[in-house]
Amino acid sequence: MTKSYNNNKLTVVSVEVGLGHPDPNSFNHAIASTVCETSRDNGHHVLFHDLYAEEFDPLLTKAEIPEHGLVPENIQRHCEELQSSDGIVIVHPNWWGQPPAILKGWVDRVIRPGIAYRFEDGDTGDGVPIGLLKAKAALVLNTSNTPDEREQSAFGDPLESLWKRCIFELCGIRIFHRRMFNVIVMSTHDQRQTWLNETRQLVTNLFPKQTDNNCLHT
Question: Model pTM?
Answer without folding.
Answer: 0.90
